[in-house]
Amino acid sequence: MIYAILRRFGQMLFVMFGISVIVFLIFFATPGADPAARIAGRNASPEVLEAVRHNFGFDRPLYVQYAKMMEKIFVTGDLTSFVNRGWKVVPAVMDSIPVTLSLVFGAAILWVVVSIIIGIVAAATRDSWLDKLLMALGLLGISMPVYWLGEVMNLITQSRYHDSWAFSWVPPLGYKNFSDDPKGWFLTLIIPWITLAILYIGIYGRVLRAAIIESLQEDFIRTARAKGLSETRILLRHALRTSLIAFVTLFGLDFGALVGGSALLTEVVFGLHGIGKLTYDALQNLDLPMIMATVMYASMFVVIANAVVDFVYILLDPRLRTS
Amino acid sequence: MSNQAVAMPRKTRGPWSVAFAKLARDRAAMASLAVFLLIVLACLSAPLYAKWAGVDPFASTLDAVIQIDGADVPVMEQSTEGLGLGYTPLGPTWRLGNYFLGADSQGRDVMARMLYGGLSSLLISGAATIFTLIIGTAAGLIAGYFGGITDTVLSRLLDVLWAFPIYLLAISLSIVTIAQGIRIGPIDIESGSLWLPVIIIGIVYVPYVARPIRGQVLSLRHSEFVLAAINLGVPGWRILWRDILPNITTTLIVFVPLMMALNMLTESALSFLSIGVQPPAASWGTIIQDGQALLYTRPLVALVPGLAIAVSVMALNVFGDGLRDALDPRSKVRLGRD
Amino acid sequence: MKKLLLAASAAALLAGTWLAPAQAEYLKEHRGGTIRLLARSAAGTLDPHINYTDQGWQMYQPIYDGLVAFRKAEGMDGFTIVPDLAAALPQASNDGKTFTFKLRKGIKFSNGQEMGVKDVVASFQRIFKVSGPTSGTFYAGIVGADKCLADTKNCTLEGGVVGDEAAGTITLNLTKPDAEILYKLALPHAVVLPADTPAEDMGSKPIPSTGAYMISAFDPNKGMTVSRNPNFKQWSEEAQPDGYPDVVQYDFGLSEEAAVTAIQNGEADWMFDALPSDRLGELGSKSMDQLHISPLSAWWYAPLNNRLAPFDNEKARQAVAYAIDRNTLVKLFGGKVLASPVCQVLPPDFPGHEDYCPFTKNPGTKWSAPDLDKAKQLVEESGTKGQKVTIIVEDTAISRSIGVYLQSVLTTIGYVADVKPISSNIQFTYIQNTNNKVQMSVTQWYKDYPAASDFLNILFSCASFREGSDASINIAGFCDKDIDAKMQKALDLGVTDQKAADKMWAEIDKQVTDKAPAVGLFTPKRLDFVSKRVGNFKFNRQFNWMITQSWVQ
C-alpha cells in the first residue's frame, strides 16, 4: 500500500520535472522570447540591455537558470513575473484558484445532477422519442466549440437581449468575490456555469446511459428481476451503482483537469480571472515565470486526479479489490 | 421429379459482413454518414463554387462592388449615421454564388471561405487522426507487448504528454514553429504549411489512443493463442503484426470518426487562437476568429462556422456510435440497436 | 533655447491666471465620486522610472511630478513646458550646458515626508541605478552618466546633478547643449521620488508621490486604485491641478467587447484599449456625445528590411510605397474619422512637418490614390519580381487585417507574399532583431515628446541600428551617412534656433521619405468612449485624456 503511494508520488515528480524542462526549453527556443529586451524597454541602449540581462541572470547557462527558477518557485516562493515586475507568481496563482474553483464546482454540480437525470431517463425510456431527443441534445452539447458558445451567450445576454425581462438580471462580465457580494457572485457565474456544463452534460449523459444499459444486461440484474424486484428499483439501486463507476472515474479526470485550468477559454470569454485566464495571459505574454507556475500547478492537479481516480476506482469496484 | 436444389452447405457470413450489415440497418448512423459525406462533397467543390461565383476567397477586396437585382452594392458599407464611424461588411444576400452569407471584414465572400475552410478543417482533422492513430497504436503496441523497461519509459512519456496542458503545448509549439518552421535533419517543414497544425494536434492526442490500445494489448498478450505463438518461437514483430494487430482493428476503426470529431474541435480552437491555420488561408476556426470582430454587426460570420463544426462533429459522433455498436463483439448481446 | 524659455514662461503666466476662476467653481459643484476605468491588462511595472507605456504614462500625470511638466491643457498648448516642482523655469548658462532649478518648498509626499533637494538628486541617480529604458538615450547627456551606465549600482552622477540644500537649488550639468532637455525632464522617467525608494524595479509596490493623487492599491491581475493624496496642496494649476473624482478605480481583465458593453450600460466610465471595429457604427450613431476624437502624434508604418532581398533595392521599396492603397488601410482601421493616410515620417502638426507625399498618383503634398502601374513597373525594373516576402504583424484584429491586405497588394505587384501574425508581446522585439531575418513588418511609433528628432533621429539614424539585438529600433536598418550628418546639424542648431532647425528637419523628412526605408501607412486618431455621466472631457496632446480633470457627478 505504502509502496504504491510512494510509487505514484515518484511518478508525479517525474511528470512535473519533465513538463517543467520542456516548458523551459520551448521558451528559450522561441525566437523573440528573450525577456531582456522586453524588460529593458523600447529603444534601450546596449548598456542598459546588458545591465538588465545581468540583473536577471539571463547571462548564466540554461541549467543554472532552470535551477534558480525551480528554487524560487518551490523553496523561497518569491519568483516574480517578467512582464509585471515585482508581482509574485505563486501568490498570484493561489489568489486565482478560488475563482476557478467557483466556476468549476458550480458547473460540476450542475452537470452531474443534470447528466444523471438525463442518463437515467434515457436508459429507462430506451429507444423512445424522449431517449433520442435527449441523446441528440447531449450530442449537440459536445459538438459546439465552448469558446464559440460562450461568445454567443455573451452576445445574447449582455448585448442583444440585455434589456429584455429574460436577461436584464445578468450582471456585467467579471468576477465578484463571494465574501464581498454573495448575490453578485452567484448571478455573475450562472451563465458561465451553464456554458461550461453544457459540454459535459452531453458527454456524461451519454456515458451514463450506455453504462446503465450495459449493466442492465448483466447476470446479477437478471437475478434481481427473477427475484421479482420492480424495474425502477433495479434501475436505481442496482444498475446505477455499477454504472456510476465509469461515471466517477471519468468525472475525476475531467474535474482534475478543469481545476488545473483547462477551462481557460471559458474564463477568458467571461472575464473571470481564474487560473485558466492566468495561464492564457501568461502564454500570450510569454511570461516564463507565470507559465512555469501555472503549468506546474495544472500538471500537479492532473496527476493527483489520476491517482485519486485510480484509488477510488479500486474502492468502488469490488471486483478489483481482490486482484 | 428431382427439381429440388440439393442442399448445399450455405456459406456462413463472416464477422465483418455481419457487422457491416448491422451498421447498414442502423438508420441514424447511415443518415449521419450521408450528412457527413454531403459536407465533404460540398467542401471538395470549393474551387468550383469560387470559380462560378467569380470570387477569390483569399484576396482582400474591400472596394469590390457587386450586383444585386441590377443595383450596385458595395461590399463594405460605410456607416452614414452620426459620426460616420466604421465600415460594416455586406450582410447575407441569400443568393447562391453572390455573397450568399455576406462579406467578412476583408470584403471576402464568406460562403466561398466556408467551403474552403471546411476543406482545411477536414484535411487537418483527417490527417491528424491518421497521425495520432499510427503513432498512438505503435506506442500502445510496443508498450503493451514488450513490457518491462520499454513499457515503463513509454508510459512515463505518455504521462508527461497527457498531463501537459494541451493549449500550452499547442501554443508553445506553434510560437516556435510559426515563424521559422521545423528543421529536424532531412525533415524540413516550412512555416505556414498545414503540416504544422496536423503534427501539433496529432501529438497532443497520442496518449488518448495509446493508453486504451496498450491496455488491450496487455490483456491480449496473456491470451492463449498469443502464448501459444510465443512458445512456438514466432518472432515478436510477427506476433504483433499477425495476431495482435488484427484484434485491435475494431477499436482503431471505432476511433477514427471519434478522433476526427475531437480533432475538428481542437483545430477550431487553435485556429481561433491564431496558432493553427495562418491567414489568408481559411479554416472554420479562423472564420470564427474573423467573426468575433463582427459579432455585434454580422453575427452570421461567427455563427455559421460554429454550426458547421457542430453538425459535422455530431454526424461523426453518431456514425461512430453506430460503428462501435456494429463492430464491438459485446453488442451481440443486445438485439437490435440500443 | 533662451527664446523658447522666455516665451514659455510668459505664456504660462497668462494662461495660469485665465484658468483659475472656472476651475474653482467647477470643483465646488462636481468634486467627488469614483471614476471607473477599464483596461485589458495592467501596464507592466508601477515604477515610473521604468514604465514606458502610454497606459502607464497617462495615469502618472495626476500622481507624480518632475522638476518641470507638460502643461495640463488641451491642444498645442499641452506641448508647453511649465515649472512643476521647480519654482520657475531654469535659466540656461554656460553655453546652454548648465541649468539651475530652485526647488519649491512645502511640498510633501503622500507618506508625509517633506520633498527636498536630496530627493531630487537621489531620483536622478535612480534613473541609472534601475537601468531605466531611457537612461542610455535621453539622459546619457548628463555629466557623469557614462560612469553610471557602466556601473549602475554605484551611480553618483558626480558633477551632473548637484544639489545645494542651503540654497534649495539643483544644478544640472550636461556634456553638451541639448535643445530637448526640458522635454526629457518632463517625462515620467525623470519624476521625483523619495530618496529612500529602493534602487530596483518596484514592480507592484506603489511608490509615494507628490501629485494630487496616490496609488493606494495594485494587483496586476485585478486592478489599481488611485485615491487622493492627503498631503497635497495645489501649488500650480497648470502643472498639477487638483482633480474632481475622489477615487480612480482602474480594473483589468475585461475584453474590449465586454468593456464597450459595460460603458454602454453605465457600469464603467472609460476604456483604455482601442474600440473593436464592429461596435464603431453603433457607437457612432447612437452614442455620439459620448465619443471624443483627438489627434495623436503617431504613425503606423511598415519597415522594410534595407539589408535583405528584395528590399535592399530602393526601387522595390518605392514600388511598395506606390502600391499601397492607404484608403483601404484607413477603412480597416475604422474610417476617415479615425485615421488619415500618410506618406512621410513626421506626423501632422509636429514641429518640422511640411505636407509631402511622393508615392501617389499625383505626387505633391497629399496622398490621393495608389499608382499600381508605376509600382509594377518599378518591381520589373528592380529585378526582384517573383521573390518571396513574409510580412510579420501583431496578432491583433486590426494588425492582422492590415497584414492580410498588404499580402494581397504585394501579390498583385508581383511578389510571392505571405503574412504571419505573432503574439503582440514578442512581435516588437522580434522584428528588431536582424537574426530573425524579417523582410517586412507592420508596427507603430508614438512620440515620446514633441520634437522631430524623436521620429527621424531615433527611427532612421545609423546609431539606432544594432546587429543581432532585440533593441535595434531602426528596424529598417537604414543608414545614410549624409542624412546622419544632417540630422546631427539639425540637433545642434536646435539649441540656438529651433525654427531654423525645424526647417532642416522638414528637408530631412523629405529625403528619408524619398528613399522609402519604411512605408508610411496612416496616422491614427485617438477615439475615447466615455459613459454618459463623465463631464468636462479634456484631451492633452502629450499624455492623452486628463482623467482627473473630468467629473462623474
Automatic annotation (TrEMBL), chain A:
Membrane topology: Multi-pass membrane protein
Keyword tags: Cell membrane, Membrane, Transmembrane, Transmembrane helix, Transport
Top-level division of the source organism's lineage: Bacteria
Limits of the ABC transmembrane type-1 domain: 97-313
Subcellular location: Cell membrane
Transmembrane segments: 12-30, 97-121, 133-150, 184-203, 244-270, 290-316
Gene3D superfamilies linked to this entry: MetI-like
Family from the record: Belongs to the binding-protein-dependent transport system permease family.
Family matches, as PANTHER family: DIPEPTIDE TRANSPORT SYSTEM PERMEASE PROTEIN DPPB-RELATED (PTHR43163:SF6)
Name of this protein: ABC transporter permease
Species this protein is from: Mesorhizobium huakuii
